[in-house]
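User: Reviewer 2 asked us to show a designed sequence for the structure in our supplementary figure. I'm pasting the structure tokens here. Could you produce the per-position amino acids so we can include them in the response letter?
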């Protein structure tokens, strides 16, 4: 118990050190450049304490729960007895990786990608602001679903890449080629939002579990390297939401045009 308290205190002090530059810069511009007092100083200080405590507890939670959970799930799903069956594993069938046997891994990766993205605070904030700025034209929940589908597809594809050992740059080049083509034809008002959607998905909830999943897979799949193959899921998770959000906008526009044409009276 004492060691746990000491660990939390160490994380808290480290968090204070990391957040201090932000506080110093804000205070400098507010007091020296703008020469204005900090409005509602007491509330700001209380909120700052909340931020420090929340970040410290979050980092402890990552170390104690999310990272171990992601690695444990990856290890269990890639266990030779689970993938190939006990008899096949004993006979050495797991020495050669059969990517078709890892379908539970792909399904789990997609489910983790979708669920963590739906719960991502940064995405919720962006989607609410997009709904507000567009006057309801961009629905907050629909945007979150589109982004979550993109992340789910990207994490599943990333798990497939780790299992098969194929190079990451091939997936990235093809993905960005699709993004470039979509950018030429997608509604112009959705493009900046689609590009931002790729960034906000890789935040506090998604990154820990996805990183742990990638490292766990690369550590347990035969012939894979944690350093060479374990990373790259976050890059894919930033790419695919751009494709799905622009695809959502293009599909919505095509649907509206089809309905408008259908309602048009015959000449």
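Assistant: Here is a per-position design you can include in the supplement:
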């Amino acid at each position: 118990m004492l060691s746990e308290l000491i660990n939390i205190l160490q994380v808290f002090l480290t968090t204070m050190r990391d957040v201090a530059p932000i506080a110093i810069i804000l205070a400098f511009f507010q007091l020296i450049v703008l020469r204005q007092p900090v409005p509602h100083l007491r509330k700001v200080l209380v909120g700052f304490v909340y931020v420090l405590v929340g970040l410290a507890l979050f980092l402890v939670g990552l170390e104690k729960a999310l990272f171990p959970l992601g690695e444990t799930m990856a290890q269990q799903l890639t266990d030779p007895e689970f993938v190939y069956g006990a008899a096949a594993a004993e006979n050495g069938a797991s020495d050669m990786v059969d990517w078709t046997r890892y379908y539970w891994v792909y399904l789990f990766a997609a489910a983790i990608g979708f669920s963590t993205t739906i719960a991502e605070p940064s995405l919720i904030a962006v989607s609410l602001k997009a709904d507000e700025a567009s006057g309801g034209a961009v629905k907050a929940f629909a945007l979150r679903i589109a982004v979550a589908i993109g992340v789910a597809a990207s994490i599943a594809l990333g798990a497939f890449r780790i299992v098969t050992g194929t190079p990451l740059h091939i997936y990235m080049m093809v993905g960005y080629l699709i993004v470039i083509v979509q950018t030429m034809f997608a509604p112009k008002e959705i493009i900046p939002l689609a590009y931002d959607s790729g960034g906000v998905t890789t935040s506090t909830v998604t990154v820990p579990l996805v990183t742990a999943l990638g490292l766990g897979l690369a550590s347990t799949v035969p012939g894979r390297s944690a350093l060479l193959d374990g990373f790259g899921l976050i890059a894919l998770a930033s790419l695919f939401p751009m494709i799905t959000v622009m695809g959502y906008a293009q599909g919505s526009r095509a649907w509206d045009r089809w309905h408008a044409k259908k309602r048009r009276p015959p000449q």
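For the response letter, you might also mention the following. The chain has two domains: 1-65, 78-263. The longest helix spans residues 41-77.
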